[in-house]
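User: Predict the complex.
Assistant: Input components as received:
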Amino acid sequence: MKKILVLTTVLCSIALLSSCKKDEEKATFGTLALEFDNKIGDQELTLADATSTDFKYTNSHNQNFNVSLLGYYITNVKLEGPNGEVFVDPVTTGSAAADVKGIYQVLESDVNSQVITLSNVPSGKYDKVTFTLGIPADIVQEGATGGVLDPAEGAWLWNWDAGYIGFAFEGRSPASPVVATQWNPENSVQIHIGGWKDITDNPMMVNNVKTFTLEFGTSVNVGEKLEPNAHIVMDLLEVIDGHHGSADFTTTNQVHTPAGGTEFAENLHAAFVVDHVHQ
Amino acid sequence: MAPVFGATFSPFTMKKQLIISALALVSVVFGCKKDETEQGPSYEFRKPENFPEPTYTFDNNPVTEAGFKLGKKLFFDPILSVDNTVSCNNCHNQSLAFADLPLHAFSKGVMDRQGTRNAPQLVNLAFMKEFFWDGGVTHLDFVPLTAIESEVEMDEEIENVISKLNNHADYPALFKAAFGTDEINTPLMLHALSQFTNLMVSNNAPYDKYLRGETALSEQELEGQRLFEQKCQSCHSGILFTDESYRNNGIDSVFTDIGRARITAFDGDIGKFRVPSLRNVGITRPYMHNAKFATLEEVLDHYSDGIIESPSLDPSLKNGIPMTAEEKAAIIAFLKTLTDKEFTQDERFFKG
């Protein structure tokens, strides 16, 4: 149903646009890059080795910690402009990595993954971006998928409550009492935000997939020969130590269920800000 | 064929039309041939007329003979487990409608590790909305991952499985034949297994033949059917004999396994488990998620006289389900008409 609505909307806007423009000029397209920069408060984020005891960062509970893994899935990207411009980044799934489009895994460990270049964007002005953080129901329910959703290629797939982890943070803190196991180093902190289901009428079924809009604060021009980008800062402290929930690592250090991640999922929107744009 | 969610300018519809015309052509050709030559077994997924629409995404993964046979090879191959000792078939035996032996109330995984829930039959999976006793998995493709990665089942990492398959003497060519690709990856492996399990359609039990007017049921079986409709059908409903809900059926008051609450994180769901399909129930003992009952007689005795109170107990079971000994015998006679020998003896599923 949603698909049909989206499709209808897109087709209608295409029809409108093309009927206006038909006789005037040939439509042109350009790119817009979204660059994700992960920070901790106002500090730059540097990944530590999983066993590192160098604890550079501090939360509001005055607990030191480090970060060994950080990343998130982004999909359903949409650009909008002040004059009614709309661009919807197409999302496709399939077995081959090349068939999986419009679904991105941004990893702190992989610089290339931190730039999402949207292409075939109709020329025009854009001043906001909307995206979904996490992998929503309609993608999960397509079944096994390749590329960034292939668990053998590093996709974060929960098997027991099948679905993808939308946002993952792992590190260590001396405040965490976790003892070493085959899965965790000593003092481990792992916060995995997942859960996508509202497919039943159970009010307790947790859906932590969030869609939100970020304003550029200005507008950028997209067009042929232009290479604009929007620089998005994600502040990890806003996620794990934010308005809706704050992890005290002495008690909250292993979050591996949808319900456990709810308060942190509520923090996600505030963690992402468009810092500036380059024309 | 990749499904498209957002804006699309792909020749999706055109492709579909082409496929439909191609299929029409094929059926015309087959139509001519039908009476001339003996056809081999069909590997096409066919929805029985009186079944609901399948839930499976066949658009992404249609069943083909090569894909089905590849899925079968994987199903029987212990290569999926960490020490190459346990295959899907170890705990899902065709002669028992793909349930485990009664001897294994809880199935044995690698290194003789014991599972914690009764391995269910694998029947009519293409029509189910959710899987496992707690319903945590919502798409058939993802089902095998849980068994592969479970410490007490196959205890293997999916990366290793894919790497073992890519380095195997036979599998690369079989995947190429089934999917036209040179590289084996997780979705293709899961698609092959789904092709195999999607054809596990059980609709040729004596009950089905009775519905189709092909056979008669005995007096006692018919009486059992009437009683079943009164006493059991509110949960074991429809042609699949399950309403796919989660209920506490009073087999415990203390729940070491919290069941559905593991997925919903809702206290009211503690002790609730999936209502299982009753197809082939006559050959899938023991019964319940914790294998509490060895026989159907014990199950019905439980419902008539053994219900244990607890906060999440299903309201319909508060007072038990009154049944006389004679009524129980009739219900069991009816349940046995759900045993589908054509399914348990279907040669397409034989290891070969």
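The mean pLDDT of chain A is 91.
Let me know if you want any component modeled separately.
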